[in-house]
Amino acid sequence: MSEFARTPMEPARAFPPASTGSPIGSTDFANEKHYSINEIAKLWALSEKTVRRIFQREPGVIHWSREETLHKRGYRTLRVPETVLHRVHRKLRKAS
Prior knowledge:
Shape: globular
Oligomer: single chain
CATH architecture of the domain at 33-67 and 74-96: Orthogonal Bundle
Largest sheet: 3 strands, antiparallel
Strand order of the largest sheet: 1-3-2
Radius of gyration: 17 Å
Helix content: 25-40%
Distance between the termini: 53 Å
């Protein structure tokens, strides 16, 4: 193996948790794992449509979108930080 070979790194373990030593506190979502809608749908055994509806208006979720034009369809991509995922899960668990 070459001395310059790269080894894969776990994104969730690449940085320290956001709550320790962060000047922003628990709202620093940049250093934590972000989940796609597909990943959450598989984890929770729900449809992607249902998961998208659950997270579409949650604060802290990252939205990328492309507006629809006359000839091209609009797209929306969501990424959910781990703390938001846990917060929503707790909220849904309490509601049941």
